[in-house]
Amino acid sequence: MSATFDFIIVGAGASGCVVASRIADTGSQPSVLLIEAGGSNKNVAQLSGEERFEVAFSPNSPLNWNYKTVPQNHLTGQEIDYSRRKGLGGSTAINFCGWAVGPRDDYDEWARIVKDDAFKWYNAKRCLRKIENFHPEIPIPELREYIDPNIGDHSASGMIDLTYGDSWIPDVGDIFKAIEESGLRTNKDINSGDPIGMGMSNVCIHKGERITSASSYLRNKPSNLKILTDSGVTRIIFESKRAIGVQTIDGKTILARKEDHCFSSVGIVMKAKSRDQIQPHLQNPTPMGWFKLPSVQASNEYRALPLPKRQFLQASTVPLIEIAKHIPPSLVSYEMSPDTRFLGAMCLLMNPQSLGTVVLQSADPSIAPKIDPQFLTHGYDRRVMIEGVREAMRVLSAPVYAVDTIDKVGPTDDSDEEIWKHIRGNLFSSWHMSYTARMGTPIDSACVDSSFRIFGLQSCRAIDLSVCPFVPKCPSPISNHTQSTAYVIAEMAAEKLIAEYGLQSRKEGSMKLVTKL
């Protein structure tokens, strides 16, 4: 038996939920089917903001695809976790709820690469206003000296509630003092388009509940949007090169009148960690800072990069590293007694030059793909990580922290050799996959055009992080900042589809569900 819809969207992740909702909510009311391999994700406990780290680190969870990389040669042969969430909301239901939109120079570079001004920062900012429902209140008003965004730069009417959390640990302000004592910059709004400096992240948590793409965009779904859960798609059905439908794992065939959209994402960003035992416990959100590193820009590895890459890295809003503080102890490879007081810090590599691969191992969709990110195979990446960890160690040694420091866990000194040894044994992914179906032009061997259409096929598009023409420059280790990019991608794609099919202006009358026996 087969059913027919105007649009079929495969995968109810950050992008899938947005596109399905936006298309279905147009004036012409096309019939839309959103198919998801996982379940509904309605368990209240799993959506609790307080439990967001437990959800991510529950081993072999049925809610997680539980992907692993192949052994990484530069990381003592480790197989790195590459978690992905099953169910409505996708990885917005498993991430750490952090929100960072990245540098404006990223989007302008994106537009240049794909030759489409729709991806410039000014347009991304317009899309962000449709996404953000910004709550500017902070738990410690005295810290307005360091956290004070321009309210006019943010929207209070979008779909995703963004807050500064319900509570902060009392001495969270010490990180800003440490940054100043270290001669670095603070940033009152890391989501202004210029993330350089230490600031406070927003979190997509409101009134104690995680905000996912499903809980926001599908909350009041129109009747012409049908959602099918627990239904993995095994293949796309083609007539010649035109996608006309999909087949599900239980043998159902579902046809599309207009378009069949596929969502998939993989990409690479890296992190290592340095730790000092001071703080009592973790609360939300997380101080995060993005920085330039003169020591990197003076290195042989940096000078060996092609000139266009060096020029981009010199752009004023483009960071080389991120330092995130107050990380949970579950992210480190050490055991601590229950009464241990600690302060954790992670260093993240921005703009990695190492490129990996994702390869299908079988036509059987139940067989996981072979994921080989090839972490730190490029000399530039190794140099940035070494210098970044060294900088994090320097900040942790600032006077405001030194007075209470009992011991340190991490590299035994700040030599290249000791830091590299620490990185090799402790680096892991920030789960921010992208770039596997990159956007561009046919002459540069890209997979999709700037309207998300897959080259060589008809009525088939890829709309998610896989289309990024480069790894987004502002991801975090523990907060899945690339989710903001995924939302922007989806809003842009929905606008292009709505315009292409005239969905806002055209009334087609009722579109009945067609069933064939």
TrEMBL record:
Q: Recall the GO molecular function terms of this protein's record.
A: flavin adenine dinucleotide binding; oxidoreductase activity, acting on CH-OH group of donors
**Where does the UniProt annotation place the signal sequence?**
none
Q: What cofactor does this chain's UniProt record say it requires?
A: FAD
**Keyword Flavoprotein assigned:** yes
Q: Which residues form the active site?
A: 432 (proton donor), 481 (proton acceptor)
Q: Does the keyword Flavoprotein apply?
A: yes
Listed Gene3D superfamilies: FAD/NAD(P)-binding domain, Glucose Oxidase, domain 3
Q: Which residues form the Glucose-methanol-choline oxidoreductase C-terminal domain?
A: 352-490
Query: Where's the Glucose-methanol-choline oxidoreductase N-terminal domain?
Result: 5-267
* Keywords of the record: FAD, Flavoprotein
Chain sites annotated for binding FAD: 233, 431-432
Write out the similarity annotation: Belongs to the GMC oxidoreductase family.
PANTHER family for the chain: GLUCOSE-METHANOL-CHOLINE GMC OXIDOREDUCTASE, GLUCOSE-METHANOL-CHOLINE OXIDOREDUCTASE N-TERMINAL DOMAIN-CONTAINING PROTEIN
Q: What is this protein called?
A: GMC oxidoreductase
